[in-house]
Amino acid sequence: VQNYIGENINEVQTMIRELFTSGSRQYLQIKQPYLTQYSAEPAGTILEQEPAAGTPISSNMELTFVVSKGAQSETTQVPDMTGADLKKIYQVMQRAAVTFAFTAGSTTGTDITVQQQSVAAQSEVPVFSSVALTVSLPEPKDGMVSDILTTTLAEFPYPFTVSLYAAYPNGDKDMLTSFRHPGGACSVPYTVPEGTKLSLEVLNKEVYTETVSAPTAE
Length: 218
Prior knowledge:
The protein is mainly beta. Helices cover about 10% and strands about 45% of the residues.
């Protein structure tokens, strides 16, 4: 067993999955859920491990990690999202340390646009607090559909990176955005062609998928 203390749990989990999987069987695994505690170390840093480094690997061995949740008093500034279009929403999601909760507002305009936010810009809040954003959703046009993907993720021991992928009807696939999320209610706006398969991935595994269809007329 190597010494994983000080390394990031995401990177270690990916490495162990790649190195210690034979066929469909993984013979060295990380015990789930991880143990976590607040620490001065960045969130996701491995603080303790069992068995210790140097222990011979045996069949079906489990590694138990204690993982940092970051500093308990850590805060962040709420970004100014009012008026942001979809491109800016995706850009801010990738770097923001808050969790956005999207709800539909009016069906106006030609692009998804933030109409209002629940917490004032530049407010100091605990990291990964929820900030509600109301967005306009344009009517479907020329085969393009705008809507909000909404699901509930497993509760994570600390904020994981979640990636939103779009597999288009023509066979192409793009990552639309990625963001850190603590788990629980999760929502992301999108504008994609009808028939696109959207998927959320965590640690290179699909955790949610849906296929986009145009809303039916009332």
